[in-house]
Amino acid sequence: MSRIGKxxxxxxxxxxxxxxxxxxxxxxxxxxxxFNFHPDMKVTIEEMxxxxxxRVYRPTDRSFHRALHGTTAALIRNMIKGVTEGFTEVLExxxxxxxxxxxxxTLELHLGYSHPIHYPIPDDVKIEVKGxxxxxxxxxxxxxxxxAAEIRxxxxxxxxxxxxxxYKGEVLKLKPGKAAGKx
Length: 183
Hints:
It is a single chain. The protein is of the alpha+beta class. About 20% of the residues lie in helices and about 40% in strands. The chain has two domains: about 5-85, Alpha-Beta Complex (Outer Surface Protein A, domain 3); about 85-165, Ribosomal protein L6 (Outer Surface Protein A, domain 3, Alpha-Beta Complex), CATH 3.90.930.12. Strand 8 (about 100-105) and strand 9 (about 105-110) form a beta hairpin. A four-stranded antiparallel β-sheet has the order 11-12-7-13, with helices on one face.
């Protein structure tokens, strides 16, 4: 049995969860999220120790159903966390003259190219720039991660000097240059 899938998902007091067919809708103080789960999975709202919880059940022990079991439970857990707390991803801009700024609904990046890069900020995500850090906030974990990956792709960290955009806490192992191999 999947340890992630069999664990009950507690529903906080300020969150409303609706299940219709194979659609889960989670509504909380920060917003509303919807997820269509696989028709083989069974998702229910149950009472456990005086609290409401979401439980996910699988029909068989086949590997496909075992994989869906844990994935479905993790996605619902992330939806509940997203509408209560939200998710944040932090990117760091490293390099001389490299900078970022929010101008209206656009993120403007100067990354050593001959022109600035203008990234339109999606409606479901909020972006702030604090010094050399770009903070991405949102209620959908997948969307926040996707936006962070798109921004990072404009200038990935250079393996020799370390310049570029990287995740906060990302460790780069810098390569030695040509001169390091000569005696």
